[in-house]
Batch of 3 targets.
Target 1
Amino acid sequence: MTFSYVSHLFCPKCSLTCSSDQVRNLCVCGSPLLVSYHYPKMKEELSHDILKDRQPTLWRYHELLPIKNPDYITSMGEGMTPIVAMNRYGQKLGIQHLWMKDEGLLPTGSFKARGAAVGVSKAKELGLSEIAMPTNGNAGAAWALYAARAGLKSHIVMPLDAPLITRNEVSISGANLYLMDGLISDAGKVVAESVQGKDWFDVSTLKEPYRIEGKKTMGFEIAEQFDWQVPDVILYPTGGGVGLIGIYKAFKELIEIGWLEQDKLPRLVAVQAKGCAPIVKAFENNQEESEMWPNASTAAFGINVPKALGDFLILEAIYETNGTAIAIEDGEISAEQKEIAELEGAFICPEGAATFAAVKKLRANNWIQAQEKVVCLNTGMGIKYPESVNVLAPTLEVGEHL
């Protein structure tokens, strides 16, 4: 059996094609490169029945992943995160079918493990030994730890105010960690300059083609978990937007190979923070690309991205699925994080909480209907953001009672 049906890389802007067997970053036109597969051949040879006896990891979809030789796979069991019914919260909002896909249960505590697993595996297959990247926290943690598992060296640059736990994850992995007083865009400039003249693979968001291939497995899993149907609406916390782009790519690929109906795609919602909402602004102005967001700031640190390299791909996914983009106040994010914990017992990350705040607003204006099937992506563990919670508790003396 063919392990991977990978075909080539292509540019979504200028249509240039190139081999996936060579080290590639951006296209010559400056656009991200994407991976294409032999879809007609796969449609002819395979059905989703092949998945029935496979292990519950993202590698169950290896035919639609870019690794040709399984010996290079670097894995810690990532994938197949649960779809959790949010019944009490949904009932409060008047939504009959509301779910959360909980990515916080992945290795390293966030959805970034998906991109790291596939990206590091492909880097190893390409013969690379060192990677470099900017990060707001979770991505750096995931890539540093997966690189360590693969025997690769990593160089990670993150803003000084990145979450402490993610800094610790990078540091303990043995990576070279650098902190800077600035945004992820500033860290990205440092990495871009530092890789020049070195044999380091720049794995910045969408500057290599393979992180998105790991992230798209969220879409494969959602389709499989809904018995090869799709929900009506999927809400995604959007910074660099690779997950949203990946989910859209996944559904299109499943249609290509005949595993999903041609005419059914969920409406995709990009959720951003009011303090950093370049995609929302571009969507509201019906633009194809975003503009740099000045003085970007939000407590949902993972979506504090002033301009995404793949902004045109994010907006395409929204437009093509009749989706929308919405910005949420930090205060609303904090309140929703608390409400989800109290109603559903789930301590989710601020970025995940933003999607629930968005659901509340979109249900209130009837953009989401009561009977629709809705999925919110929680992209990480709440315990990775201890500073997002203010603990108020009385102190008891020894011998005192409640």
Note: The radius of gyration is 20 Å.
Target 2
Amino acid sequence: MLTDDKQIKMRLALANCKGIGFVHASELVSRFGSVEGVFAAGVSGLRAAGLSAAIAESLFSENNWAFAEKEFSFVRRNGIRVYFCTDDDYPFRLKECVDAPVILYYKGSCPIDCAKTLGIVGTRKATEEGIRFVNQFLEELAKTNPDVLIVSGLAYGIDICAHRAALKNGLNTIAVMATGMSVVYPSSHRGDASKIKDQGGVLTEYYSDFKLNKNGFAARNRIVAGLCDAVLVVESPIKGGSLITASIANSYNRDVFAVPGRPVDESFAGCNRLIMQNKAAMVCSANDLSAAMGWNVSKEETLDVGPKEVEELTSEEKIVISIIRQYGKVHIDDMAQEAKLPVQTLKSLLFMMEMKGLVHPLPGNMYALGKY
């Protein structure tokens, strides 16, 4: 039997092999039964599976194995968690995205998969108005939804403001980096990254000493969008990276929101256009977003149905409603585990409940309470 160390090294080597992305890596593991099976197949087996000779041979090259050894030493020495695309605990929202990273490096104190996850992005040249909105927004959100996870990109402006405001208000926050773990960019945010690890985490798809390049920001933006239930654009000119994040979020069927600005204010022109083109819903407060996401339901609230309707609910329906009420919205896998029901059984139950208006489905196999 292979040791865990050997398995991790194989995952690192496979992820580093150019020409093998998320879909291809998943298909190879499925075909050969495991990452170990992929390597046991050898060059000839991988060629038969459709890989080119160059890619198959590079997987087994001395340089690739040297890389895996080096990275393994780094992650072990620094207590970094490695997520491989076929692992059960790979972030489930990202698994829905065909361009997700083959591997993720994570160091932090909170789980990546939370019931409520919100990405906050915006311009690097944030105005006092934008910064003030972020601080007020997260102060309000923390009062009604203290369990929400805030995700952003550790960049100047709105990003770092979102991280700092989350920390200040006791919310967990994850910073998705466009560099490797040993190269924090910008360097002035190194102290913030350290604090974030204690009240959230830092996440990257890049190897330890990967330095920033022109493609790093756009690649990072897709992870921010993919990790979240929704993305909020706080302040953006007519062109900017946050609009790319919003576009990616739309392509992933995530909810997108934007904060409006005055028509003459160029720093909000991108937000206004998102709203005008129906690519984002307008929000002016934390309550606006919470209501749109169904995050205002608390444990103490009772069913908004009459006594007769409550009596007609089955015991399983009551359990499902209780679970969704507790979290606001829940992934079907988490619901199945908590309800102690097989996933297929739960799918049938949820379909019937949807027909009754008791629940409604959301993107990413998530469910919220329906309109009674």
Note: DSSP finds 18 helices and twelve strands in the chain.
Target 3
Amino acid sequence: MTDAATLAPHGAEDTTELLRFATAGSVDDGKSTLIGRLLFDTKTLFEDQWESVTAVSAGRGDEYTDLALLTDGLRSEREQGITIDVAYRYFATPERKFIIADTPGHIQYTRNMVTGASTADLALILVDARKGLVEQSRRHAFLCSLLRVPHMVLCVNKMDLVDYDEAVFKQIEQEFSAFATKLDVPDLTVIPVSALKGDNVVTRSENLSWFEGPSLLHHLEKVHIASDRNLVDARFPVQHVIRPHSNDNHDYRGYAGQVASGVMKPGDEVMVLPSGFTTRIAAIETADGEVEEAFPPMSVTVRLEDELDVSRGDMLCRPGNQPRVSQDVDALVCWMDESKPLRLRGKYAVKHTTADVRAIVKDVQYQLDVNTLHRDESASELRLNEIGRVTLRTTKPLLCDDYRRNRATGGFIIIDESDNRTVGAGIIV
């Protein structure tokens, strides 16, 4: 077994593209086993990891090495045979690097599902070929659509338990495709696999010779994600102002941060919000020196031609293409706090890009049932794992975009000021 890091030549510049994907599905659909199969078949394991899961499998009396144990990292999960938290795993092939978020299937862990999918380029939803689509399959698909995950893969797993029957696969494919038309799913691919046996996970399988599409890994390696990021709306939230204290650089002033969207180049005219002053970019710097352009998700330092009052939480944008500046924010919020619900008139801290503001809940418009899409307009609060539309009034204007257009500037988190815990996540609508 080899570690993924050995796949790249030592000292070579790493330009391999990174794909983040989240797995989801109902309980026992085989998410953890599928991820374990990907790690095992791509040889992205250490010897001690393999020895550990082999020993645990033998101790439980399993007749085979349970690959699900590679991702079920918590002791309580291993003992119960379930996944209750988001398990992040990394692996790589010569084609691409991957970060996997293995999210829970249980309805009571909706918040974990939202956390894992919020930064994903692709959502991988599993269904058991014997059971077909269930309520949780639809719920996870809706949540991924809500979070604007650009690509979705439906994996029809456990095909070995239905004798690799093409008719079973076709029925599930047609049913899910019909449901997906009600959602906003820009790219849907349906793939039959057997995670336990390895059929069509990394390599094509003779047992599924009737399937003309790619193996799962081949699709993950080839799916086009370069154009998913917003390269139109230039947004640069300022994270830190760099002012060296040495005499040699007493005139230096740089603004560090991560490009949220758009493309920025030296010479471009930019506007500083919320002040509204305009200037031009003098230079864009990285740890390796100056660059001719910056695009997401690059972390850079921007120097401006004019001395302006710019601080953390401000944003650079184009004068003719500005984000919305507003203190009243409508958002869909997923509530994550077990102890206290979100309530009308509740006061919280909000973190949006690099800005920290305080907010009060002006209105709870409705609570959304993610299974039926029914809106309960009589709701006045949101409890753990519930999703609803609320209106917040912030102490300072947010520099935001609609989440559909820009995930980076359209999302925020809600923090309980009393103990600094993250209690909610919101997407601006």
Note: The two ends are 47 Å apart (CA to CA).
